[in-house]
Structures are given as C-alpha cells and as structure tokens.
Amino acid sequence: MTQPPAPIREALIVAPEYILEDLDQATAATFEATYPALSALPDEDVWQRIRSGFAMKPLNSRLIKRHEQWYASHPEYVQRMSERANRYLFYIVEEVERRGMPSEIALLPIIESAFNPGANSVASASGIWQFIPSTGKHFGMEQNWWYDGRRDIIGATNGALDYLEKLHKQFGDWELALAAYNWGEGAVARAQATNRRRGKPTGYSHLRMPRETQNYVPKLLAIKNIVSDPARYKLTLQAIPNRPYFEAVTPSKPMDVKVAAELAEVPLDEFLALNPGHNRPVILHDQAEVILLPVDKVTVFRTNLKNNDQRLVSWRAYESDKGEAFEDIAAQFEMTLDQLRQANGLSRHARLSNGQTLLVPAKEESESEFTPFNMHATAVQEMSGFKYVVRRGDTISGIARKFGISQRSLIAMNNGRSFLRVGQKFTILPGSSRRASMRKAGKVRKAVKLGNSKQKVISYRR
Fold it and tell me: DSSP per residue over 197-264, as a string?
C-alpha cells in the first residue's frame, strides 16, 4: 500500500483532524480508502487513549465503590494528580502499549504516588513507582550519594513494567501480578500454597491478604472507572495532549542542576520534576545517562550550552576529617551553617562523622556571591535521614554493611547506642556513606569526583 507524501504524513501526525475536515466528503472517503492505516485518527488526549486500552476483567468488590466515593469527595486531590501526570503519562502509555499490557497499568502510579516523583514511604520506597531499595537495585536502579535511580522517570518506569511482566508470567493474571507488586511475589506464592494445602482455590479473590493489598487492585479499578467517565463522579481530568512531553538529552559533562535548568530556560521546579533522581545540586554525566527536558526546550538547551562561556560546575565533593564540625567546614568555604545544610539536605540535628562526604562551593566565594541551592521538596527525596527498625537477627555490623557505612558512624548517629533489641529504631543519615572511589583515594581529604578528576576542581567552559 502506498503511503502519502512525507509533508502529508507529517501534517496528519500534527493535526489530522484539520486535514480531513478540509476535504469534501468524496475526497475524504477516497483518501481513507487509499490510506487505511491513516484513516483511524489518533486519540487527541492521552486519557482517551488509555480508555481505549482497558482490558482487565471486572472485579466484584465493595471496596471499589468505597474508593470511588473517596476520590469523588476529594476533587482537589484528583486535580493535583492529573496536573502532575501531564509530564509523565504519555511516555508510560507508550511503554505499556509497546509491551501489550492493559492500559490500566499506566494508572498504577496514581495509587502508588499520585505521580509525585518525590514521594517516599515509611518502608523507604521512592519515586512514582515506589520501589524499595533492594527491588530497585535488582532492576538496575543505581542508588548512591549522587543519584537515586528509583526516582528516574524512564529507568523506574521500565523497571516497574519489567517487574510487572515477570509477575504476570509467574502468576498468570494481572490481579495476582498487581497483588504481588504490592505485597511481594513470595507472599502471594505462600498464600497460594496455603490455599492448595487446604483444598481452596488460589485465585486473587480467594487469597487471604493484608488490608493494604486487599485494597490495592480495587483502588486501581476505582481509578479506572473514574477515568472511564469522570463526569459521572463530578470530576475533571486535566487534558493531556497525546504527544511526547519530554525528550532525553545526553549530558556530555558535569553541570549544576540549576545551570542545566537555566540553559534550558525552564523553571527549576519543572526541571527537577523531570529529573528528580539527583540527590545533590550537581549532575554527573557518569551517574545520569540522560536528562529530560520539555520537547520544545531541547534545541534551546543545546544552543545555549554551545554558546555558554560561564562556569557549569560550582560545587565539589569534600571529605570531612576527624575532629571537624559542620561549623568548621562552613567557615572554611565562607558559607553559613544553614547554607551547608541546604546544599547537603541535612537536618539541624544531623551529626558529622569522620570521612563523611559533603558538597561545598568549588571555589571560595564571598557571602554576596554565594547563592544557596535548595532541592525542590516536591520533586526530590528528603535527605534528612530515616529510621531503620531493628529485626530479629540484626547486628550493628550487619546494619552498617547494609547501608554502606562504618559501625562507628552508625553508633555515632544514634548517640552512642550499640545495644540492639527487636523493634528498636536506628537513625540512618544520608551522605554518611563514602563512595568506593572515595575510599580508594586513601587519605586525600578533599577528593573531588566531578567528571574524571579527583584532584582538582573542574570548571568547564564552552
């Protein structure tokens, strides 16, 4: 079958409804008969595209109605969610369709995180898909001092869909796969084994599950019903154009997050919402394989970068020495204590441990020249630390090894406590773990790892 000339194909992709509306009825019919592949116009809105791909079977559960009522009574929540989804949903739907998955899967971040890339759970899950550290690592999401791949939009989406495909293949239906995504595949398999021993069915509706998992699939199906007919629930979903929102750009050199946003001429909040994986205000090209930019800002970014003659990096990594205090380091680099805390995501109660890595200005600047950087709270994970609950069999050395810190640092973070009991909460402070490259640097106190140099501060100019 012949294809229309390239200009016509391009016009059809950009605005097909206007092209066909301009044709008289006979010509339009001839066109559709000649080019059947293009006669079915693409959905103008991503929500409609999702509706077209619904494929999960109905579930008879009173919980669905309960969740429908909750969302219907919280229109402001639904509005915020749909506004955030605007950035990510086209890409997710593309990937879901490419894999032949039901489009309900594209709605899963709504119940996981409401499309908030900075969402964190008490179980240390993070990102729009809410990966815990171990599962994220299993699916290739690197997590270190600089970067958390669980918050990477592309990487986490691909990891989540890989995991869901694996679970669907293992359990045979999407309801069980989703339950396993929430509860754990081992837990679902054990529940099925228990039912088999008792001569009971092993389908989704027959398993005994914790309350959160019991509500998980019904909540997704409630969202499906709302997306199917928002007017029925007196709700409005913000229209999402059926075209890419962002494009991936490969950074060729390190640069400040703030500088990258300025080069792209986008607000910092917008840049961080698309690139929420950065734990520090510096983008390392060996950590972030790509940065995401709004489609209409890619050329702007490349042009501004090519013409740029200013510093791209204004930060460096500094390794603390024994006996130093935060106040000493702040004074050494002519920062206030609050500025040092802001740059490193430290709480006011954080303690400095020997060998801790901190981000400091790449050159001593006067107070009037230094602008503190505060990672956007809604787009970047809080880095003030978290509580680890001691489990049976835990040891000080084991906990320290789990989080890549020394036993001495762990004890120091917890006011000298070295005695463990089940249920006890231990504080784990980020930034306390030294990267392997830092450890290999021996006694070098001011190790810098921006690009390929550990010995000097790097200032890139174009």
Answer: HTT---SGGGS---HHHHHHHHHHHHHHHHHH-GGGGT--PPP-BSS-SEEEE---S-EEHHHHHHHH
